[in-house]
Amino acid sequence: MSMLKNNNNLKTDIFSYIMVGIGATIAAFAIEDFLAPNKIFDGGIVGVSMIISNFTGLKLSILTWILNVPFLLFGWKKKGPHFVLRSIYAMTIFAIAVAFFETTPNVTNEHLLAVSFGGLILGVGVGIVLRYGGCLDGTEIIASILSPKIHIPIGRQVLYFNIVLYMIIGFLYGWNKGLYSILTYVLVSVVMTRVEEGFDAQRACFIFTHDDVDSIKDRIYKELGRTCTEWNTEGYIGGDNKALYLVVSQYELKQVREILSDFNCFATISGIDEIIGKNVKMTLL
């Protein structure tokens, strides 16, 4: 049993490294064949590397690796060796891919097309890297270390850093370039988050009712293949009632609404950041 588990873990690790490599390559393609030729800049350390490359003529592939790796080594204790090694691997693949795409012609010289497709492709690449446990930018590592000391959330620190970066880009290259870069950053953030979380995002449903709770559970199980967790609750005015908790995909919410419309109940629906373990679902024929 232990050997089987180790084999499964090894296969998972190998698959994760493959996917991180694919994501890093996709990101490099977006940077080098869409954004960099049009002087449209990414955020974080990659954006800083792009600025330095423009001023000094140094290879972007070398700069992204040199500037990022020290941040990861600095965060070794905070994030752990497994994360750091996987991220160094991702950054190395990214640097190699950037060096390769430096030799290929850029796809378009139209800024709006570069922003739209470059941002979309970059978001997909970065999202894949993050989803499989890697990292292409050391900014978040430093932010995670500073967060407990300066009491500013990680996301807000990264945002502040990028605001300053894009202001510098605006002064150096003109505000059109700065605004195009901001638009790219927003697009990358949206797509990256979607890819990292998965397109079939899950939703948590809390249902409170005085009705026949077994009928609700049966309908949900038969029509959605989902099981519910049930417990007794007490309302301030309504008194004793039942509560149900279930997890569904966003595409199943319409069915949940249709089921609940046939009962006298109160429900709340919220997003889920992560699910650990297996989601119990019956296979419907």
Q: What structural class do helix, strand and pairing data support?
A: alpha+beta
How large, in whole angstroms, is the Cα Rg?
Answer: 24 Å
Please work out how many helical segments DSSP would assign. Answer: 11
From the spread of the alpha carbons, the general shape counts as elongated
Instruction: Characterize the largest beta sheet: strand count, sense, and whether it forms a barrel.
Output: 4 strands, antiparallel
Q: Percentage of helical residues?
A: 55-70%
Order of helices and strands: HHHHHHHHHEHEEHE
As a percent range, the share of strand residues is 5-15%
Measure the end-to-end span. Answer: 32 Å
| Uncertain residue ranges | none
Tally the beta strands.
4
Supply the number of structural domains.
2
- Can you list the strand order of the major beta sheet? 2-3-1-4
Mean pLDDT: 82
Question: Can you summarize this structure?
Answer:
The chain has helices spanning 2-35, 44-56, 60-74, 76-79, 81-101, 111-131, 139-150, 154-173, 175-197, 213-224, 253-260, and strands at 202-209, 229-235, 239-249, 265-271. It is elongated and about 70 Å long.
Spell out the blueprint of helices and strands.
Elements: H1 2-35, H2 44-56, H3 60-74, H4 76-79, H5 81-101, H6 111-131, H7 139-150, H8 154-173, H9 175-197, E1 202-209, H10 213-224, E2 229-235, E3 239-249, H11 253-260, E4 265-271
Antiparallel strand pairs: 1-3, 1-4, 2-3
Report on this model:
A 4-stranded antiparallel beta sheet has the order 2-3-1-4, covered by helices on one side. Helix content is 64%, strand content 12%. β2 and β3 (239-249) form a beta hairpin. The model has no long low-confidence stretch (mean pLDDT 82). The radius of gyration is 24 Å and the shape is elongated. The longest helix has 34 residues, at 2-35. The chain folds into 2 domains: 2-197, no CATH class; 202-271, Alpha-Beta Plaits. The chain is an alpha+beta fold.
